[in-house]
Amino acid sequence: MIDKQEEMNSIEQVLLNSVCPITMCPIGEAVRGEHCTHLQCFDLQSFVSINAKHKRWQCPICNKRTLIFNRDLFFTDLLKGFMRLQDIDAQVEDKFYLEYNLNIKTLRERGKYHDRYRMILEGDKL
Ligand SMILES: [Zn+2]
Fold this sequence. Notes:
4-stranded antiparallel sheet; 3-stranded antiparallel sheet; 7 strands; binds zinc ion
């Protein structure tokens, strides 16, 4: 039987999106619902404005209903760093991989070309 820690250790990278799955615009305030178990966040303002009309209050990623949100400061920092990369290199696509060692692996030209950037821990040294 695989316990939770072994399961975590087996994850080498996670595909994330720097744009909100609701609007496809850059995520401003990165949040997820209180019951969400995924790393991907969505934009709070987009979520509230779309649900003010449709009243579903479902996470756009896992579909769990939620009225309570958790702000994710790690994801916010990740987005800030990723946007710096996009400023430097306009070819970098909106999706990226976060590797187990906190390296960012960017996608270019429809995923054919990757670069690695160690940016989260090193911050402004880019
Ligand atoms: Zn969710």
